[in-house]
Amino acid sequence: MGFGHGHGHDGGGPAGHAGGRHRWRLAVSFALVAGFFVVELVAGLLSGSLALLSDAGHMAADVVALGAALLATKIATRKDTTGRRTYGSYRAEIFASGLAVLLMLGVSVYVVTEAFTRIGEEVEIATGPVLVVGVLGLLVNVAALMLLRAGSAESLNVRGAYLEVVADTVGSLGVIASAILIATTGATYWDTLVALAIGLFVAVRAVFLGRQVLAVLGQHVPEGMDMSDVTTELEAVGGVAGVHDLHVWALTSGMHVATAHLVVVPGADSQDVLVRAQQVLREQHRIEHATLQVEDEPSQACHEVTW
């Protein structure tokens, strides 16, 4: 029985790392959101608006989430000096995304709870300051969205920050709508209703992002990838008689990893099979790091594996 082993990757540095490429976007967005959070919190306390306070609470979550995302990209691109993290620290970004999910859910629960406790209460709300702060918040969030949008399609870490800002943008729109409705109708219950809507919207976005985070941590097949297609294309490589023990997962956003055993036909050049199989995985499925074992026939150990 003959064996061959090969793997390929892009070096793992910042140049090939989606989160690292967009770190500056996170940094600028963090500065914008953190600066405005203080303004919104003070305005919410002075105006008595629950919608404004709920948006300030969500913006506080934005500050923490953006800060965690920024720190995670730094950790993810740091070289391992311990020899124990053979895949590096790229998963730090996924944990940061998970923190964003928890923060969004926490803010949502708080806002919804506060909204229900205010039902039936008469409160004084200074609509003028609420409207001004809401408009300023909208401008800050739109600027952050424009910065983060490009990276949100490539990095789950940046996507977590982006969705935080999306939810906060909706919150700013809600604050503006609340101020206008209260000013025109005199009914302060609009503030409670808008706060409730903001909380529910944030919860939905958190669940959406949470499912993606769990898929990565659970080492699911990357979204959009069909394992049967991967198997078929590997079996089409010249000299390959069969494929088994194929596993594909995402280390972090945009960094897919694969392992597989390739059974080759008698007389086939194992090294040539390795090179062409890696090329298929890289060009067809963006799998830069593939560890492949070449064998003349499946070993007994392979037959005994049950997962």
Which keywords apply here?
single chain; Alpha-Beta Plaits; 4 strands; 64% helix; 307 residues; Alpha-lytic protease prodomain-like; elongated; alpha+beta; ion transport
List the helices and strands and how they pair.
Layout: E1 4-6, H1 18-21, H2 23-47, H3 50-76, H4 92-118, H5 127-152, H6 156-185, H7 189-217, H8 227-235, E2 240-252, E3 255-264, H9 270-285, E4 289-295, H10 300-304
Parallel strand pairs: 3-4
Antiparallel strand pairs: 1-4, 2-3
Helix pairs in contact: 2-3, 2-5, 3-4, 3-6, 3-7, 4-6, 4-7, 5-6, 6-7
SSE-based structural type: alpha+beta
Tell me about the biggest sheet? 4 strands, mixed
| Total separate domains | 2
Identify the overall geometry. Answer: elongated
Mean pLDDT: 80
Q: Say what the CATH topology of the largest domain is.
A: Alpha-lytic protease prodomain-like
Low-confidence stretches: 7-16
| Topology as a string of helices (H) and strands (E) | EHHHHHHHHEEHEH
- Just give the CATH class of the largest domain: Mainly Alpha
The span between the termini is 23 Å
Major beta sheet, strand line-up: 1-4-3-2
> What's the CATH H-level homologous superfamily of the largest domain?
Cation efflux protein transmembrane domain
CATH architecture of the largest domain: Up-down Bundle
Estimate percent helicity.
Answer: 55-70%
Number of strands: 4
Radius of gyration: 25 Å
Q: What fraction strand? A: 5-15%
What is the count of DSSP helices, taking H or I runs of 4+ residues?
10
Structural account:
The protein is of the alpha+beta class. It has 2 domains: 14-217, Cation efflux protein transmembrane domain (Alpha-lytic protease prodomain-like); 221-304, 2-Layer Sandwich (Alpha-Beta Plaits). The chain is 64% helix and 11% strand. The chain has 10 helices and 4 strands, in the order βααααααααββαβα. The protein has helices at residues 18-21, 23-47, 50-76, 92-118, 127-152, 156-185, 189-217, 227-235, 270-285, 300-304; strands spanning 4-6, 240-252, 255-264, 289-295. The chain has a 4-stranded mixed β-sheet, with helices on one face. The radius of gyration is 25 Å and the shape is elongated. The model is unreliable at 7-16 (pLDDT under 50).
